[in-house]
Hints:
Blueprint: E1 6-7, E2 15-17, H1 20-46, E3 54-55, E4 58-66, E5 85-90, H2 98-112, E6 116-124, H3 149-152, H4 164-167, E7 178-179, H5 185-199, E8 209-213, H6 216-231, E9 239-242, E10 246-249, E11 269-273, E12 280-284, H7 289-299, E13 306-315, E14 325-334, H8 352-366, H9 370-373, E15 377-385, H10 395-405, E16 407-411, H11 414-423, E17 428-436, H12 446-472, H13 476-479
Parallel strand pairs: 1-3, 5-7, 8-12, 8-13, 13-17, 14-15, 15-16
Antiparallel strand pairs: 2-6, 4-5, 4-6, 9-10, 9-11, 11-12, 13-16, 14-17
Helix pairs in contact: 1-2, 5-7, 6-12, 7-11, 8-12
Amino acid sequence: MASTRSLSPPPILTERYGDAVAAVDRLTEIYERNTAFLRERFQAYANGELLQARVRAVYPFVRITTHTHSRLDSRLAYGFVAGPGVHETTVTRPDLFREYYIEQIGLLLENHGVPVEIGESTEPIPIHFAFRRDVNIAADVLPSPRPPLRDVFDTPDLSLMDDAIANGTLHLAPGEPAPLALFRAARVDYSLHRLHHYTGTDPEHFQKFVIFTNYQFYVDAFARICRERVASGGAEWEAFVEPGNVVTPAGSAEPVSGVAPERAPQMPAFHLKRPHREGITMINIGTGPSNARNITDHVAVMRPHAWLMLGHCAGLRNSQQIGDYVLAHGYVREDHVLDEELPLWVPIPALAEMQVALEQAVGAVTGLSGFELKRVMRTGTVCSVDNRNWELADHATTIRKLSQSRAIALDMESATIATNGFRFRVPYGTLLCVSDKPMHGEIKLAGMASEFYRQRVGQHLAIGLDALERLRAMERARLHSRKLRSFAEVAFQ
């Protein structure tokens, strides 16, 4: 374009706030005004209006400045900055994250005793992210001739959407504020759009407790349970949501809105909604570590309280039986999809809170306890691989590696989900069910598989749901373990 001027809404002055609700109200005001401005200008562009300047609006920010090294309550895992200085982050979708922002800003105010600053950042809002859903910029619906979209609007910039903060690889320029959250605004927006694309449901429906599975049997069983619970009414459950944003509200046996997609999304999500997003989301991630990494990269921006992997595995010990459970307390990472982001020398520890909840849930559902519980569940190392036909590799080498690692089970997704939980500070756990023992001649065949699924899926899912109820009842400061936090950590959970 001939002009290098910028067409922007009037600037908003930065203000200080000592009240978290007022601060989030201000964030909302800035965000809503600026995104509305972009949508209006885009409509003019789509209608063929020749804009005389480049259009730009920016995300709001929250900032805190501290001047002391005073020691805080050492029991805290989050809600405070690591040291004196300026700490800042851009934010998006305050409508979606309102309660989260109020909590995080409230903790900053309480723990540091200084006000936060709210204002406009310098980070542009990409035009795609000014819309809740993907903006339609197809060439056949926009008039021509017209300047290219990137000449008029800011578009997503991948250099601003990496995970350097979460990975611990961020290098700050002199005088640049330290990060206040793991994700800046554009990175969050990117994942919000990806969640709808992959799961077929809007991010508004995602709950704070998440189950990942790799079998449709589990999703079918979960859907049946969800329909029964919402049909019974009551205040505990708000709704059940299926792909296509098909919503069945509490007290109803039939959906009242949404349209089921003609073709299932790649990783369909189902949501049993509770007030304050305290319900359960289940996602069928399909097979393989690439899928597991992909979906957890995006679910992480929702800041869940916990996620679990419920799936099947190959039992590696002759003492195991088909249908036994495996509670992972360590992982052999042969999946390779996160080796750069989190090197293999980084341990992925078992989290006591998750382990106890899962073990107690197995006992409660099976009716076993103490030494008797060992009849159906074994705790040990799980090896996750990226080769579905691992059984066909050099047998002697496979046996040696699995024996040296003390692995008791093998799958393709668990280590990836646990590693990304560790990387993104999301409490994680794994409970698998032995579906075959190929190293001992027990190969899963079609008829055997059907019988196994029929017998075990319901119980396995009941254990997962029971474990999440135990975690939901736990204090948040206890659940979000300090083991997930580094020594130079961001304040936001």
